[in-house]
Amino acid sequence: MSENMIHFFNKKKEGHHRLKARLIFIVMSLAFVLSACSAQEAGIKDKLEDSQHVKKHITIAAVGDSLTEGIGDQNKKGYAGITRDKIEAVDGVQSVTLKNYAIKGSRTVDLLKRLKEKKVQDGLKDADYIFFTIGGNDLMHVVRQNVLNLTFAPFQKEQGPFEERFKTILAQLREHNDKAKIMYVSMYNPFKFSLSELRDIDEVVKDWNAVAKKELKKDGNADMVNVADLFEEESDETLLADDDFHPNQKGYSLMANRLFSEVKKEGLPKE
């Protein structure tokens, strides 16, 4: 454990109580949000280096949590919808269908249940791309359960079970589609600036992302699109929605740019 992490968990009692109060408030606010519930200029085609014989009609299936659903985006597209628009703007592509089965609040256990639904399975089987996010709510679950005594230990304890569930998710995705390109959009630390005392959660996010990346690499046709760094730098333009957890339209646009860059690097599917 880093010296910064040790320093964080040895804050003075008064500061620790203030942190607890603020953390409880954010957790309660997020619980309410989760339970209650830009594209390129038209006509301009993006030319890829190898756009010859690209597939005219492309299908994207998206699964996961609120990030894939697009919660927080004023335009209600999220990174998946914005990326869809970008792919459709590529020269030679006539249409891109996005089938989005993501549900806000989903943890890995919920996604595993969702993948058993016939509607989702049918949507996956013909997809050229599978986009997904998962894990953020698993982290939040650890926070909620330990909000009055938050230490590094419970995150370490949950990392192993998370890895096993993530591995099973990949296996189930492949069971229903053995050819699609799988693109996992990484976790990030939403508390970086709203709760500066929790900046060491960066280390947890880094470890969990590394676990996901390791499993994705085993697949051979799956990649992790790392977006954690997008939310690590302070700027005059906020990237988070009013709940200080989900990205806003600008945040999702940056995520989509990162994802589309990977799509272009790989090249679009051919006819």
TrEMBL record:
This is SGNH hydrolase-type esterase domain-containing protein. Residues 62-253 form the SGNH hydrolase-type esterase domain. GO terms for molecular function: phosphatidylcholine lysophospholipase activity. It comes from the Bacteria. InterPro entries: Ester_Hydrolysis_Enzymes (IPR051532), SGNH_hydro (IPR013830), SGNH_hydro_sf (IPR036514).
